[in-house]
Amino acid sequence: MSLAELASMAVTAMTTGVASGAGTAVVDEVRELVRGRLEGSDEGRGALRRLDAEPRPEGAADDVRARLTALLEEDPELARRLQAALEPDVPPPPAAPPTVHQQITIGGSADHSTIVIGPVELPRTRGVLIALTGIGVVLAVLLVLGFRTVLNTLTDDEGGSGNGRTTALRQEPDVRAVLPDAASVAQGWETTQPADVRKGAPACESGCAGALYTATVRHEKESPLGGVFFHVEAYDTVGHAAARFKDLRADKDRNTDGLAPMSIQPLGDESVAYRREIVNAGSAEAGARVGTVVTWTTYRTGGSLDPAALTALARMLVDRAQQAQDGREPTARAGI
Question: What's the pTM?
């Protein structure tokens, strides 16, 4: 595969979320590799901002592709890591385990009957028959319990979009890890409201069935003035998370006096964004549901608001929520 083809596959994964059948974990890895290198220069950051803009300017993807191709020519290790992520080796199918046959034989004459289980030969007496019957009942119960355990494991979380696992975040540290720190937003930002994680959904007036935890954090910067508030709600099932997101969206849609819908790139399983008109300032928010987690990102600036910045912040929170549900440490960054 040529470096240009490799760069093209990487940009496709970043913009569409798919590349040669790659899953969410692969797309996340590709985004981190590419953004981590391109954000090292002003030109690279500018190219990424144009790529994230909505609507996307013509030629934005080509610009990122060209810059990435040049980087791959300079950095063979980056090329190797990208190719390894996009074209993982397919392991050979496991060898079939050997089949073990055991034979149970009950036979003999009327005077001398035996029960043969593999290499063991037992006399056919009333006590032996009762014992074997009891063992059979115990084995049947164990099989039923084992089947129910597997079934509960498979159905504990309702099906999602298929873009990643939808494991419920049932532990407080897992939910807390979804919240990004100030460094994950960008250089120069500071935490002005520390991370706070509470059980359930204290601010929910509709009950919020299945709510496990609510987590919030706020980061701000002085120059140029900006602030972002991250809100995360973790639920026990996809269905409960979807119901909560539906209620939040309906509530925002009813607030026509202060909010106006705005367009950003799709996020997670479902998403929505709104712009709030403020004199001499800009404010917007983006909500998304990813699996069993509902996220809400509110972004404000001292001047005109860049939709690409809101998209980058909201995507970071969504990606971190998906990484947590995948059982991985949330590491996504915004890099605005």
Answer: 0.54
